[in-house]
TrEMBL record, chain A:
SMART domains: MeTrc. Gene3D superfamilies: Vaccinia Virus protein VP39. The keyword Methyltransferase applies. It comes from the Bacteria. Keywords: Methyltransferase, Transferase. This is Protein-glutamate O-methyltransferase CheR. It comes from Dyella telluris. InterPro entries: Bact_Chemotaxis_MeTrfase, CheR_C, CheR_MeTrfase, CheR_N, SAM-dependent_MTases_sf. GO terms for molecular function: S-adenosylmethionine-dependent methyltransferase activity. Pfam families: CheR (PF01739), CheR_N (PF03705). One of its GO terms (biological process) is methylation.
Automatic annotation (TrEMBL), chain B:
This is protein-glutamate methylesterase. Its EC number is 3.1.1.61. One of its GO terms (biological process) is chemotaxis. The keyword Hydrolase applies. The active site is at 12, 39, 132. It comes from the Bacteria. Residues 1-180 form the CheB-type methylesterase domain. It catalyses: [protein]-L-glutamate 5-O-methyl ester + H2O = L-glutamyl-[protein] + methanol + H(+). SUPFAM superfamilies: Methylesterase CheB, C-terminal domain.
Length: 289, 189
């Protein structure tokens, strides 16, 4: 049976692509933020989503606002950069960090951890809680970086919708948490605020993986579900940046569906727990040339 | 009409059973690249691939970011991520907000695949209890691709096919049992 609705007329999708490209170009020329090496399909979705959320008829209107409206940059960056996250997302990964990585970190007198692309900070607090419970937090320094200032500010405050607490509590327990997550936050109306003592060894800093360089020597780099947004060359640049930031034998933890198959820089990393995307620098796996 | 080079399939409630039947009926000689987005059952994508492989006549594997969408292979979207196809016809993932309350979202897969494959794409919407997939199917048709929708009367959950028909229409609307034979006819040279 054929439906009565005939073939719809093909829209000029190439016009949409032109508009997205001009928007990305304007962002770089006007504000210095370069998204040209982001994976195109999801970037395009985000730009269109931003246009929709801003109630503009088309992407060109976004470009105009970006060029002429001083406050619009932060709105645009927020729309383009922040993925949704949760505390202890993929609890088994945090369990693996606790069981396989922390015992090695414990051998260092001072532990430096870089969380790249920390967004709203859910994973920073997750990490701080785990370190606290492992008795390692007092000698740890966490560098939590993102290029989006609004997100960093939210991460500093550690205020999240209370409706998330139930899932996050389950995640926390599945990650091997020793108490209840509620021990670490106070609930008020529709929000929870994480104990700000968890922040005491965190430096939130603006760092852009596209353009910025090495700034610390890390024993562990956590960067989960950021590289999926990068095209191959930018992914490779970023992995090289992680490699150059890590001490020999340092750890790298990526998102559980991220792939290093197309990154030459990845040859420096050997899997510790491949399924959970935990790698180690410079400890070449047996049998490798 | 150009021969199709790729097939995208979307389903939700009741989708696993429907997929088992559909994939079992495909001709093992099909050269098309196939991608599947199912809201249910993908929580453990390894298990889902294993299950579908028991029925499928073609190899089933998880869709991996950056890997090419290969002909003669059924790629399954992992849960918790949106699956996209780049114009290079390689897969990409994202953890952006849910679309139609779903991640992976059928719309996201279909819309990006429509840009990648244009008129060489076949989109199939099966049983499901929400409206995901309708906008994606519209985009498939607008790109010149072929739209197939399971007859709502035949679907375990009629909502998804119904909404798809209302918004996008279809080139073919038929019971599940007839979809694999139709794909074989459309897709074999």
């Amino acid at each position: 049976m054929n439906s009565p609705a005939g073939k719809a007329k093909a829209p000029d999708t190439s016009l949409e692509d032109i508009e997205v490209e001009l928007f990305v170009r304007a962002l770089k020329l006007r504000h210095g933020y370069d998204f040209s090496q982001y994976a195109p399909a999801s970037l395009k979705r985000r730009v269109l989503q931003l246009a929709h959320a801003q109630d503009t008829g088309n992407v060109s209107e976004l470009t105009t606002r970006l060029l002429h409206e001083p406050g619009f940059l932060s709105v645009a960056l927020e729309g383009l950069s922040v993925p949704v996250s949760e505390m202890f997302r993929d609890p088994d990964v945090f369990l693996a960090l606790r069981e396989q990585v922390f015992p090695v970190l414990a051998s260092y007198p001072q532990i430096n951890i870089w969380q790249a692309g920390c967004a709203h900070g859910q994973e920073v607090y997750s990490l701080a809680i785990l370190l606290e419970e492992a008795g390692l937090y007092e000698r740890t320094q966490i560098y939590a970086t993102d290029f989006n200032e609004a997100a960093l500010q939210q991460a500093r405050e550690g205020i999240y919708p209370a409706r998330e607490a139930q899932l996050w509590s389950r995640n926390y327990l599945a990650a091997g948490g020793r108490h209840t997550l509620a021990d670490y936050y106070s609930a008020r109306y529709e929000f929870i605020k994480l104990d700000q003592r968890l922040n005491r060894h965190v430096i939130f800093a603006n760092h852009n993986l596209v353009t910025d360089e090495v700034f610390c020597e890390a024993h562990l780099v956590l960067c989960r579900n950021v590289l999926i947004y990068f095209s191959d060359p930018l992914q490779d640049r970023t992995l090289a940046l992680f490699r150059d930031s890590l001490v020999r034998g340092g750890f790298l933890c990526l998102g559980t569906r991220e792939s290093l198959d197309f990154a030459p820089s990845a040859s420096d990393f050997a899997p510790v727990d491949a399924a959970r995307r935990i790698y180690r620098l410079g400890s070449r796996s047996a049998g490798r040339d | 009409m150009a021969a199709p080079q790729a097939i995208v399939i979307g389903c939700s409630a009741g989708g696993l059973t429907a997929l088992e039947q559909l994939l079992a009926g495909l001709d093992p000689a099909l050269p098309q690249a196939i991608a599947v987005c199912c809201h249910t059952g993908s929580a453990n994508v390894d298990l889902m691939c294993e299950l579908l492989a028991k029925y499928a006549t073609l190899p089933v594997e998880e869709a991996r970011e950056r890997a090419p969408m290969r002909g003669g292979v059924i790629h399954v979207a992992p849960s918790g991520y949106h699956l996209l196809v780049e114009t290079s016809r390689r897969f990409a993932l994202s953890v952006d907000q849910r679309v139609s309350f779903a991640r992976p979202s059928i719309d996201v897969l279909f819309e990006s695949a429509a840009e990648a494959w244009r008129e060489a794409l076949v989109g199939v919407v099966l049983t499901g209890a929400n409206s995901d997939g309708a906008r994606g199917l519209l985009k498939v048709r607008q790109g010149g691709g072929v739209a197939i929708v399971q007859d709502p009367a035949d679907a375990e959950s009629p909502t998804m096919p119904t909404v798809a028909l209302e918004l996008a229409g279809a080139d073919h609307c038929l019971p599940l049992a007839d979809i694999a034979p139709l794909l074989n006819r459309l897709c074999l040279p």
